[in-house]
Amino acid sequence: MDILLVASAFNSLSQRVYAELSDQGHRVEVVLASHGPEAVRAAVRETRPELVIAPMLKTALPEDVWQEHTCLIVHPGPPGDRGPSSLDWSIAEEASRWGVTVLQAEAAMDAGDIWADGSFPVPTVGKSDLYRNEVSDAATAAVLLAVERFVDGSFKPKAQSDPGIAVVWRDFLRQERRRIDWENDSTATVLRKLRGADSQPGVLDELCGREVFLHGGHGEDRLRGRPGALLATRSGAVCRATRDGAVWIPELRPRKNSGDPAPFRRPAASVLAGFPAPPGTGQGTPRHDGGPHWLPEDAAPLELPPERTTWTDIRYRQYGEVGFLSFSFPGGAMSTDQCRRLLAAYRRALTRPTSVLVLGGARDFFSNGIHLNVIEASADPAGESWANLNAMNDLVEAVLRTTDRLVVAALGGNAAAGGVMLALAADHVWCRTGSVLNPHYRRMGLYGSEYWTYTLPRRTGAETAARLTTEALPVSAVTAARIGLVDRLVPVPAQDFAGEVEHLAAALAQAPDLRARIAAKAAARRADDARRPLGEYRRDELARMRAIFFDPRAPYHALRSAFVRKQPSGSANPLATGGAR
């Protein structure tokens, strides 16, 4: 069937719906509603779809489109729920379960007939994590069911006037409702407010006399101070005291009218470093880590005792013969500093007596490659791009050169660009079935690196590798397994992924042929190096990337800026490949 997806952004849910509908044999096109109603009308005229689906929409569909075509809207709330902030309210009101509804577009917002719905538990995670996992699972299942019912032709959607549906209107959740009262709010309340706005829109607050949005929040069990006071930095995050504890905040976003030239999310400590020091702290030389000199740095614990509650973005734990090096970076992006710290942790993990080492293994993003926000905020974006890419290459090379144990990349969530190539450097790639992979760089105007010219063809064959990097389309976990990107699918909910990975890794460590596998891996590494050393792949890739980074006319710079600042760029069709890779 010919299906047109209309989305305000080609985000994680839109990509998953696209990939899974394509897997079922449907011909799917996409148009971005952010380019305006005329772009949507033009796409409808051009594609002549049998069905229009809006997985993520911030503006109304043009009336003539939904009157002339069946248009299904994905609403992130249970049947009868209406309003623009449904998922935010589920966290604010501490719902234990929530839902999604696929309904037919009509004049009144969220009031159309219901084609399908689903429900899911609401774990104690950030809104964006919840959206990419539990919401995405339920929404995709509901969309596929709605499409099946539409194709069948006999299903009659349920009107919301049905007595079994309780209609509830929820207003837009404004900053007044999100604002933190540092003197009176408990740590639990502060964390709930931060979780409900971790990606968008953030929680508006004031630091050092400047208005900023706070993004993300994690509890801290030891540091204490006057409510609202900044206590320390750690790995780019800042710790702030509450009335009964403290919280770590990984990212800040200066308000647009604050005069900051980079009013987008980036590591909190780097934002504070550009603010005036509080009275009494004096002036000094900024620390080597880019944080403000007037805040102490609290060391990040790599191995965390089970009784501790604190935040760190990299952790190591070990059970018998299996080591687990988990990492979780906001948005999946990995800055130069994050890559270097992860490499140091990886090298420490290699000193432990294990036969299997698992990378990742947590829920949500695995990795999306280099950190475009940090690069865009740099005084020298070309130089920072180069440093970041080399740090990412160092990490990938370390994984490729590990020959004394098996390395598993465990993808509990999405991965893209260099993040996919980091996973492919491992011996085994295990992937949750709800994940989406983007094994390409072209949409950012890049050739790519991280040894992709070695690892991608090695797994998929040269022809498929060329197609993946040229077409630059999202790939479902199922398709990734079929073409060789993924070795094992893990069909569990997001909250069960870590436990299932532990079970699978323990079984791998007990495999009777484990030593033979490790020996064969070392022999294959030697043979591959004899044919073409790894250094040659890196040299050739980096030559192409350096030419792009240091060319101010290269499309990469405009594409990066538009992406970071969430501005429309290029075609209204996000599947159009545009310029050269």
Automatic annotation (TrEMBL):
<protein>
    <submittedName>
        <fullName>Hydrogenase maturation protein</fullName>
    </submittedName>
</protein>
<dbReference type="GO" id="GO:0003824">
    <property type="term" value="F:catalytic activity"/>
</dbReference>
<dbReference type="InterPro" id="IPR001753">
    <property type="entry name" value="Enoyl-CoA_hydra/iso"/>
</dbReference>
<dbReference type="InterPro" id="IPR036477">
    <property type="entry name" value="Formyl_transf_N_sf"/>
</dbReference>
<dbReference type="Pfam" id="PF02911">
    <property type="entry name" value="Formyl_trans_C"/>
</dbReference>
<feature type="domain" description="Formyl transferase C-terminal">
    <location>
        <begin position="174"/>
        <end position="256"/>
    </location>
</feature>
<dbReference type="InterPro" id="IPR011034">
    <property type="entry name" value="Formyl_transferase-like_C_sf"/>
</dbReference>
<dbReference type="InterPro" id="IPR047180">
    <property type="entry name" value="HoxX-like"/>
</dbReference>
<dbReference type="InterPro" id="IPR005793">
    <property type="entry name" value="Formyl_trans_C"/>
</dbReference>
<dbReference type="InterPro" id="IPR029045">
    <property type="entry name" value="ClpP/crotonase-like_dom_sf"/>
</dbReference>
<dbReference type="Pfam" id="PF00378">
    <property type="entry name" value="ECH_1"/>
</dbReference>
<dbReference type="InterPro" id="IPR009188">
    <property type="entry name" value="NiFe-hyd_mat_HypX/HoxX"/>
</dbReference>
<feature type="region of interest" description="Disordered">
    <location>
        <begin position="252"/>
        <end position="294"/>
    </location>
</feature>
